[in-house]
Specification:
heterodimer, A: mainly alpha, elongated, B: mainly alpha, Rna Polymerase Sigma Factor, Chain: A, Arc Repressor Mutant, subunit A, 2 domains
Chain lengths: ~130, ~190
């Protein structure tokens, strides 16, 4: 009997069997069970993910290490840093004073654009 | 905007009724996919519930970049991966060394040999599909029952396109062996 079937016919039979492979019989009451669960678990408005926690730990460690390194510097080095800082700040005030209002305006404009697009989006979970 | 998108937007606003309609629409496919992989009714039911609960909590993150059902399939597949730790590995191990041109007839042939294909043969092959490994059944369900394209399956399972094609090709090869065995048995019975 096998001899009667060439590879193409076998393919057709297999394709037919795959396409007619029945769906599993669905138990009843799944919707009710799901709804009962989501009613007891309201969708959170905001959720921390695992990445958020990892990022928080890494940032804390970096900040802690920086603070520790800064505290451990000798007084002479601290004074030098402070002097250099003052000189840099004065240089900035003399040469790039215009950057302060420009940055403020650009920051404000960005926030306005962001707020505008947020208002266009649908509100979520106002339960 | 179609009806499903409206339901999704309402569900995103916290409308339980809209979400219930989405569950009603998609539960059959989600359950079927889970059942074909885990082979246990209770586990499949549990996975189906878990899928929809996760979908509900993650609904704010659904941006509509993919179809809602594809998004659900992604969730249930990830849950299946958690339930069957070897599944992800067995899919990846399929490799993509075989890149066959899979024939896909659109219509039933009018060839008289088609008469040969009895209901018994089809039922036998359905049993053979049931007996395939979970990775093959996952691919078959996504391709033939959920009617996803190869690209969609590859994207959903995060697999190379070649691996998806290879997996389906190998599944068909196993079915071809099963079919040959079936015919050999029939021949033996007749003789």
């Amino acid at each position: 009997m096998d001899d009667l079937l060439n590879p193409n016919e076998q393919n057709l039979i297999i394709e037919d069997a795959l396409r007619s492979y029945p769906m599993a019989t669905m138990p009843k009451g799944v919707s009710e069970l799901v709804l009962a669960r989501i009613r007891t678990e309201p969708a959170p408005r905001f959720q921390f993910t695992r990445n958020d926690y990892v990022l928080a730990v890494v940032l804390s460690l970096v900040l802690g290490a920086m603070l520790f390194a800064f505290q451990s510097l000798p007084p002479h080095a601290l004074i030098q840093i402070r002097i250099q800082g003052i000189l840099l700040w004065q240089s900035f005030l003399v040469n790039y004073r215009w950057l302060v209002p420009l940055t403020s305006i650009m920051f404000g404009a960005s926030l306005a654009v962001f707020a505008f697009f947020q208002l266009l989006r649908p509100q979520r979970f106002e339960q | 905007m179609d009806n499903e998108q409206i339901l999704i937007q309402r569900a995103q606003k916290g409308d339980h009724t809209a979400f219930a309609a989405l569950v009603d629409e998609h539960q059959r496919y989600v359950y079927n996919l889970a059942f074909r992989v885990v082979k246990d009714e209770n586990e499949a039911l549990d996975l189906t519930q878990e899928t929809f609960v996760r979908a509900w909590t993650a609904l704010p993150n659904f941006r509509g970049n993919s179809q809602f059902r594809t998004w659900l399939y992604r969730i249930v597949t990830n849950l299946c991966y958690n339930r069957l730790p070897t599944l992800r590995r067995s899919l990846a191990d399929l490799g993509d060394d075989v890149l066959p041109d899979i024939p896909e007839p659109e219509n039933a042939p009018t060839n008289p040999a088609r008469e040969f294909e009895s209901n018994e043969t089809r039922t036998y092959l359905h049993h053979a599909i049931n007996g395939l490994d979970a990775n093959y059944k996952l691919l078959i369900s996504l391709r033939y029952q959920d009617e996803l394209s190869y690209d969609e399956i590859a994207s959903l399972l995060n697999l190379p396109l070649g691996t998806v094609k290879t997996g389906l090709f190998r599944a068909k090869e196993r079915l071809r062996i099963a079919l040959a065995n079936y015919h050999a048995e029939e021949q033996w019975t007749i003789s």
